[in-house]
Prior knowledge:
Layout: H1 10-20, H2 24-31, H3 35-43, H4 50-59, H5 77-83, H6 88-95, H7 99-107, H8 114-124, H9 128-139
Amino acid sequence: MKRRLRGFDPSRLRDARARARLSGAEVARRSGIGASTYSQWEQGKADPGIAALSRCLAVLNTAVTDVVIVDPSEEHLGDLRVARGLTQGDLAGRVKVSPQHIGALERGHVKLSDAMAQKIASALGFEVSRVVASFDRVRNRPPDVLP
């Protein structure tokens, strides 16, 4: 099952491209992705991965948080990572754990220790309390809500 990028707003991506006065094909070329892939993102037919989206947004001189909007009161741990434009592997490297462990934390399948909360907060540039709150939300989410 392909995962959705929570909070991704295709219209905000289109607006950022329009402000940059670039075609979708040009953004795709400069970002190293296919033009049809980029077009599908703008049309809302597909969600980008964070690595490719970050490359596109660098071309557009736009922050991830300008096109991926999640209310802070509803943030999950993975949303904090995405807000910084990082993959699970990127964050794992910064906090010296496996990407699988980051994934398990983001799904709420393992306990978040105080030490790991501090490492993640430092790596992402967020307050520890925000990291803990986002983890608690994903850990305690209803069964029908994806992390």
